[in-house]
Amino acid sequence: MTxxxxxxxxxxxxxxxxxxxxxxxxxxxxxxxxxxxRIFIGGAGRSGFAARGFSxxxxxxxxxxxxxxxxxTPSIQEGDLLIVGSGSGNTASLVSNSKKAKEQGAKVxxxxxxxxxxxxxxxxxxxxxxxxxEKVKGKGKASVQASGSSFEELCWITYDAMxxxxxxxxxxxxxxxxxxxxxxx
Amino acid sequence: MTxxxxxxxxxxxxxxxxxxxxxxxxxxxxxxxxxxxRIFIGGAGRSGFAARGFSxxxxxxxxxxxxxxxxxTPSIQEGDLLIVGSGSGNTASLVSNSKKAKEQGAKVxxxxxxxxxxxxxxxxxxxxxxxxxEKVKGKGKASVQASGSSFEELCWITYDAMxxxxxxxxxxxxxxxxxxxxxxx
Amino acid sequence: MTxxxxxxxxxxxxxxxxxxxxxxxxxxxxxxxxxxxRIFIGGAGRSGFAARGFSxxxxxxxxxxxxxxxxxTPSIQEGDLLIVGSGSGNTASLVSNSKKAKEQGAKVxxxxxxxxxxxxxxxxxxxxxxxxxEKVKGKGKASVQASGSSFEELCWITYDAMxxxxxxxxxxxxxxxxxxxxxxx
Amino acid sequence: MTxxxxxxxxxxxxxxxxxxxxxxxxxxxxxxxxxxxRIFIGGAGRSGFAARGFSxxxxxxxxxxxxxxxxxTPSIQEGDLLIVGSGSGNTASLVSNSKKAKEQGAKVxxxxxxxxxxxxxxxxxxxxxxxxxEKVKGKGKASVQASGSSFEELCWITYDAMxxxxxxxxxxxxxxxxxxxxxxx
Lengths: 185, 185, 185, 185
Description:
Four copies of one chain form a homotetramer.
Chain A (H helix, E strand, L loop, with lengths): L4 H14 L4 H13 L3 E5 L1 H16 L4 E3 L13 E5 L6 H12 L3 E6 L5 H4 L3 E4 L20 H21 L4 H7 L5
Parallel strand pairs in A: 1-2, 1-3, 3-4, 4-5
Helix pairs in contact in A: 2-6, 3-6
């Protein structure tokens, strides 16, 4: 049995970065979630997979939730909420989604490294998540990992931290969530 | 300008096969759709893409619809309907889905070449669609196309034929459908 | 047994529209396919599902093929080919993909109702497929179906018509294709 | 600025669980990766999204990689490697995939909570990852999170820990990986 140095190096990096995440931002996004008629989740690439994981948990929690781009996802309307994860805050397709959501009168929330960029600027709530990507080199501390990985991991964990809050807010247990878990797969 | 012989050969084959499709079967599936609380759509491979296209139209029509395997798809329950397309009627994952749906008290409908096989046998309604696949060679007439293509094309068209009926049944126009069409993509 | 009038109405519509498809256009796209290092397939919505079906057949035929947006899809480079299906020829994400492909020195081919629009204008080969969509009402003949369906069906069939040619060109049988068919699903 | 207690609670849980992960197991999987002709990645649900993220990184690294279930994924053959993530080690579709891979003469590797279960038992290499799921309650320590989350997060991080090793093994930088990063999305 050999301890895995890489995993501990990743966890140390995440802990350091996590100190910069403001819990008030999570609470603001959670408030939008509880107030929304329907929740639309968007994301591209690896942070998009973290977002898909979150869409799964929101379904478990009983919310009406859609992932942008799926065939069963309807048009977004006033009263709805769009949550997008975008490291740069400038991902073209997600910028386009966010603009459309705002035009329709829906709210927008985002997880991003740069809340000051395009998506964050038009968002009703933004969670700033530190990280480093190849497109924005040198703006953060050098990561022990491939570019983007630290942001993506911390997105996943931040989504799960919100799930912990939402379980308490809605007074639900693992059993409640599991009843909604897909029984065909 | 040269006419495309292949396309006409395909359309001729589809017309010949279409003569064996019983409209009463479509009407039976449509009845289950209109009676269901929620509709779950399943399918694998190329006929799965036809099924995804159908799930999109059911959303356009205003039904509560989920594609099996997506993260936002909840557990199936009594009162729900599962519609699966399976050429052989024996696709392992779709057999498993159909069994689970029946166990839960949901209804099952299928589009298949062999209604007498596993999935058709446990279905509440089945649309028999002629075709030929590599796994079931020699049971049908030789196709001018790659194995399976004729079944897959006719699945797509049969789904769309049901959409025509459902538009009339629910008294909806193209404009009604377009309002629900995804506005973020 | 009642014949299904809707299916025959669809097939009649497709046959009428098919008369406007130029086989020379298919041959031009097939030539690009056989000359490409790697083939990238793109598409959104329902015509995107037809495109996914085609990507599956190109894999069966032994080509190196990727669907745009999948996590295993690499960057497009000179010598590669992008094939996109877009009814309007103006779908934002597909316009963006096509521009990028051209910038990189890759070729672009398209299936579209309007070869004169953005994507067609920058394409090395375009197959014009008649149809009617809600966004481009009144430019074509009224369809018996929901907007877009006729184009989507004819895309699927046009892709399959090219598969017929490519099987002959590469001298392959159903058995050859089936050997490459996914054995895990 | 309020520190996020949930995120730190998750990171503490991951650090505690990480102590049980054997780096020798990661090295064994990495060896299979470097020896394989082609790599097939499988996974369902939320741990499937972590697996998709890994498939993306393997593409970045220059490996020939496929995600099971995608239309461009061919049949697995001798000399190939299948890597599946399955908390329980008994997920029906992944068991079926693993059996098929072994039958074909391919190797199988897995990330799982229970290497002694079905998938682990037939694997050439297994990474044991601690966790707790609703289906296997009481076998591990109670998690601060929803069932499964801890396993899923640690899968993502373990995949990324292997990426760190593989970058070193293949002597590649972020720049090398970024060149292969999808330029159309």
